[in-house]
Amino acid sequence: MKGSLLYEGKAKKVYTILGEDNQLILEYKDEVTAFNGVKKDYLPGKGRLINLISSILFAYCNQQGIHTHFIDSLSDTEQIVEHTRMIPLEVVVRNKATGSIQKRLGLEEGVAFKEPIVQLYYKEDALNDPFINEGEAKMLTGCTSEELHYIQAEAKKVNKVLLPLFQRIGLQLIDFKLEFGRRHDRTIIVADELSPDTCRLWEAGSNRKLDKDVFRQEIGSLLESYEEILTRLEAGAHV
């Protein structure tokens, strides 16, 4: 079933499927990186956790009417997805202040925004994925104004769907990153992954961090944090 290796990134490998042009296999790796690959480690079992968490979250979004590339989970570390052409754009939705926006604007960590803030970043490792405006996004990605507005609206929909899901299992969705891809008919859907590698998740009440900041800040066991998220999702997602 698995064909040739199409692409390998920091966290996953992408394979073709023999005899199938419209689908791909994503295989999640047991590697963790931060600060654009400057900090890295090998954590056996991480790929399994990311794949299972991402599969649950994508399936939940699909059930809620959000179009994503996710089709099915194939194994503990693999999933079948729709073949899309990725748009070189990272869309970040922020519900509370932390990370770069906290530092850039001098905010207190954890301050809630009155409404979600959506930001665009150009996906280019050589430039450290710079923050860009809509005009720059149009130039760099080839998207029209209407497509960029659609992408940002879809990101807000994902946020609206995931916020109550995480609240139900005792977690706060602080912020998250989305990527989008084009189908063969040029329609745009949510792609890449949804996981604690791309979401900031804090425990409700205690504000204990359970996402990749555990690795960035060296404040605990990343695998234990991800295992806890998976356990909570399996008990409460009802997918």
Automatic annotation (TrEMBL):
Name recorded for this polypeptide: Phosphoribosylaminoimidazole-succinocarboxamide synthase
Residue ranges of domain SAICAR synthetase/ADE2 N-terminal in the record: 5-232
UniProt GO MF annotations: ATP binding; phosphoribosylaminoimidazolesuccinocarboxamide synthase activity
Catalyzed reactions per annotation: 5-amino-1-(5-phospho-D-ribosyl)imidazole-4-carboxylate + L-aspartate + ATP = (2S)-2-[5-amino-1-(5-phospho-beta-D-ribosyl)imidazole-4-carboxamido]succinate + ADP + phosphate + 2 H(+)
Origin superkingdom: Bacteria
Pathway per the UniProt entry: Purine metabolism; IMP biosynthesis via de novo pathway; 5-amino-1-(5-phospho-D-ribosyl)imidazole-4-carboxamide from 5-amino-1-(5-phospho-D-ribosyl)imidazole-4-carboxylate: step 1/2
Family classification: Belongs to the SAICAR synthetase family.
Keyword list, A-Z: ATP-binding, Ligase, Nucleotide-binding, Purine biosynthesis
Species for this entry: Pontibacillus halophilus JSM 076056 = DSM 19796
Enzyme Commission number(s) of this protein: 6.3.2.6
Top EC class for this record: ligase
Pfam family, one: SAICAR_synt
Primary gene name: purC
GO aspect biological process, one term: 'de novo' IMP biosynthetic process
